[in-house]
Amino acid sequence: MGLRVLLIRPKPHKETIGLQNVMICEPLELEYISSNIEALGHKCVIIDMIPEKRKIPYFLEHLRPDVVGITGYISHVNIMKDYARQVKRFDPTIVTIVGGVHAEVNPGDFASKYIDYIIRANGIRTFIDILNRMEGKETGEPECVYHRDTPAPKKETVFPYLYPDRDKVKRYRHIYYYMFHRNCSLIKTSFGCPYNCKFCFCRQITDDQYFARPLEDIINELKQIRESEIYIVDDDFLVGRERILKFCELLEKNRIHKKYLIYGRADFIAANEDVIRRFKQVGLRAVIVGLESCDSRQLDDYNKRTNVRINEKACAILKKYDVECYGTFILGLDWTGKDFFALYRWIKKLGLVFVNLQPLTPLRGTELYEKYKDRFIIREDEYEKWDLAHLVVKPDRISVRMFYFYTILLYYLITVNPASGWYMIRKYGLHDTLKLSVGAFMVSLQYFRKLIEGR
Ligand code: SF4
After folding, report:
1. Under a CB-based contact definition with an 8 Å cutoff, are residues 81 and 70 in contact?
2. Residues at CB less than 6 angstroms from ligand 1
3. Helix H or strand E encompassing 309
4. Would you state the pLDDT for residue 21?
5. The architecture CATH gives domain 4-134
6. What is the pTM of this model?
7. What pLDDT does residue 423 have?
8. How far is ligand 1, taken at its centre, from the CA of residue 130, in Å?
9. How close is the Cα of 370 to the center of ligand 1, in Å?
10. Across the chain, what does the average pLDDT equal?
């Protein structure tokens, strides 16, 4: 008869400086779990607590699940534990499972009497393993769940699963967007990244392995997606020019007319202008590029394997083909006002309008963690503040307050000025510009609070 499964995507804590003000994306990982377990006869409901007004007990009362699965990132750890507590208080016999990228890399953070299983690897298969054991189809402990003192399991390098069940979040779909990409759908075509930047958490998730799904499979999945805006959530989609060119060819051959937002490295863009031109013809709309710094020495320190010249060339190419560049930058902990203004001048010179400024955040699991862990000013269990926007390490040369001051100033100088506003209105229309401005304003209020608190 199958089990009743409730899957929950958490709402961020009010302390978390909120990207949800400028983007809310569908919970792809839960949609994958849903399609793959329903194919085995289970019944699944997904609730997205970001737009939901109703509380967890309401859903428990109405759905009476046998199993509750919760996913999230580092900033959700306390919320996920709290949801599990609410579930067990409602009915201790409901099995609680947590997963997600943070659970895979730092499973011990979820140790709690309210959580039955912490998925440590291979989420979909492990979730199925747990359900099989609950039904008595298999015995013993599922292979990839967390137990203290047991070695980390081996991660899969294939992805033999059914497509995500996007209809499961149909009632929320109208609110999903990424900046100006309204109603965008997510797709994942590869796992991991072949590079090894020191600050990066992504590569820990796949144990430094990189593998990609076959392109024909991706084209089939794209054909089934109704939305025309597609956000390819690969850590780096621009790996291998032949693969991208083949992808463009298949899009054309299959008459797939959609717009794409991707992650890509500056060195690929700089060295493959023809690929960007070709991709633009079949729908490339924007690239999130980890530019990180306007100082080549810093890029070397991060092991980014790019330099300032490459970054500039990449931005120029994107501009030439009218592909939006969303530049992400790391704000150095040894910076003074001079460095913030140097970055501002460089961004201005490149003509970037959309930037994401993150203070260097040595997440546990990355190479930088050991170096900085003695200087943390945010406790590690204050997970909601580990959002890549809070300053978690004491800066070397300026106060925390000044660091937040310069961050806000940089955002205002780059994005909130008449020229940038006019650019957005012309390109994306008044409605979307206003919507984004409201979101950005909400984020800036959170930053202002930090500025006043000075910690
Ligand atoms: S920062 Fe980007 S390029 Fe570097 S390892 Fe992470 S995903 Fe790869």
Report:
1. no
2. 193, 195-197, 200, 202-203, 235-236, 265, 290
3. helix 308-320
4. 82
5. 3-Layer(aba) Sandwich (3.40)
6. 0.96
7. 93
8. 32
9. 19
10. 95
Ligand 1: distance of its center to the CA of 134 in Å?
A: 38
* Integer Cα distance of 19 and 214 in angstroms: 31
Residue whose tokens read 């492990």:
126
The pLDDT assigned to 135 comes to 95
Q: What is the dihedral of CA 64, 68, 70, 76, to 10 degrees?
A: 70
Ligand 1: nearest atom to the Cα of 193: 8
* Secondary structure of residue 7 in the 3-state scheme: strand
Structure token pair of residue 445: 């209020």
Q: Is 129 left (phi over 0), alpha (psi -120 to 50) or beta?
A: alpha
Q: How high is the pLDDT of residue 418? A: 87
Q: 268 is written with which tokens?
A: 């690929």
What stretches in the chain show pLDDT beneath 50?
Answer: none
**Which protein residue's CA is at the shortest distance from atom 7 of ligand 1?**
235
In this structure, which topology does domain 166-453 adopt according to CATH? Answer: pyruvate-formate lyase- activating enzyme (3.80.30)
CB 173 within 8 A of CB 121: no
Helix ranges (DSSP H) in 64-195: 77-90, 101-105, 123-134
Mutation to probe ligand 1, out of 190, 191, 199, 200 (largest number of atoms < 8 A from CB): 200
210, 190 contact by CB (below 8 A): yes
Domain borders along the chain are 4-134, 166-453
Which pLDDT score, from 0 to 100, does residue 416 have? Answer: 82
- The minimum-distance atom of ligand 1 relative to the CA of 194 is 8
Atom 4, ligand 1: residue with shortest CA distance: 197
Q: Match 């759908």 to its residue by tokens.
A: 185
